[in-house]
Amino acid sequence: MMNMKKILNDYKITIGLVVVAFLIGSWFSGENIPSENVNHNTHSSTSQVWTCSMHPNVQLPESGQCPICFMDLIPLEKEIGSGINPNQLSLSEDAVKLADIETVAAIYGKAEMEIQLSGKIAYDESRIGNITAWVSGRVERMFVDYTGITVNKGDHMIELYSPDLYAAQEELIQARKILGMGSSQSPLYQKSMESNLLAVREKLRLMGLVDEQIKAIEMGESPSDVVTVYSPMSGVVIQKNSVEGAYVKTGTNIYTIADLTRVWIILDAYETDLPWLAFGQDVSFTTGGIPGKTFAGRIAFIDPEVDEKTRTVKVRINVANSDGELKPGMFVHGSIQASIGGEGKAINPELANKWVCPMHPEVVQSKSGSCPICEMDLVQSESMGIVHTPGHRHDSLLIPASAVLKTGNRAIVYVKVPVDEPTFEGREIVLGPRVGDQYVVKSGLVAGEEVVVKGNFKIDSAMQISAKPSMMNASLDLEKAQPMSHQH
What we know:
Elements: H1 2-29, E1 49-51, E2 59-60, E3 74-76, E4 88-90, H2 93-99, E5 102-105, E6 107-109, E7 111-123, E8 128-132, E9 137-142, E10 150-151, E11 156-161, H3 163-181, H4 187-206, H5 211-219, E12 227-230, E13 235-240, E14 247-248, E15 253-258, E16 262-270, E17 282-287, E18 295-302, E19 312-320, E20 331-340, E21 346-347, E22 355-356, E23 364-365, E24 379-380, E25 396-400, E26 405-407, E27 410-417, E28 423-435, E29 438-443, E30 450-454, H6 456-465
Antiparallel strand pairs: 1-2, 1-3, 4-28, 5-30, 6-25, 7-16, 7-20, 8-15, 9-11, 9-14, 10-13, 11-12, 13-15, 16-19, 17-18, 17-20, 18-19, 20-21, 22-23, 22-24, 25-29, 26-27, 27-28, 28-29
Helix pairs in contact: 3-4, 3-5
């Protein structure tokens, strides 16, 4: 008994759904439903088509049951108006008011947005150097015995005892003595001794000794047991890889030094931020370690790979740090005032017709030349993709985000067709980046066309019930997006 009641209830619910779907479809398609207060347009059809209210893609020439869900088919009537396209829907004026449909024209405007990025300070990799052992030996003394200390170019770092260096010193001293005693010899002999002395000097230079050391050894009477190794650069010792008394081989890294007068700011950008970013853009950033101060730099490099774990891309900024305020490891928060042009790419009009260095974007000149930092040839800014050449738009075609129905890779809008009766056309468009509550349209619309911003879901539902191309019915193609015109 209980099962019978359940079956009857399910049957009633099913019948109710069919009736509701039929009424909605009739309302949007302008079908003649008896009423005392509403006037309806009537039309004739040459052939009757039957469809399923649950599966509108089912269209049969005679009544019966749906082959998918076995519901009774309902008659499908043609749209109001003559010559209507399959991807269009005509509504009566009353239906438009009841559906509360609103439209807005697509217009050209500035696509500007503030991009917020976070990251941290890192060493400038081009300003890191190593102090290595040029010859094998034993570390007798380390003058710099902890990391973090600041050293200047020419500071003494270690004293190294090396049998090879000791022997080379002896060779130099003997070569100088022999040359001094050979003044009475033939010119050929004298020239040979001079060549030998020069060769020994070069040998010591290749062992890491500086000219002052070589001169001091040459003027002495006996070689020194230890040789001092000096720093070739200024910076901060960030690694110490040896201790006093340790034996080192040729090429062993003893110290690593970083020059902190210039640092890198490494920011993490999400994939959705990439259309807004380009080489040479101005970036401002702050750090909690230096409150109340804002720093500035320019994008010097955008990593060509996406981190598979974080789904972010590294964006690098070169920043001067002569006073040493910025310290590697500090967290920073960056901000970029970005603009996108008509082609959907980031633009920077300030660098138009300029010459820049690919390695150092802070180097900007009005004519060709070489970079004063790395001596690379400067290139035109347009070749770096940061500005648009003459003839390209610096504004974009924009529509409200509420006008777009997105499903998967498809973006659909309903465009008002300029005819006598209210008619709307479904169209698949190609979107650019989102700009706040608007989208950039790359193709599929032209300026001035009106898109539905309110009531588009209702129109799409009516399209589905009428078995027309819609957001959900991908098997029925909407009008494909065509390259848009760049005229207002």
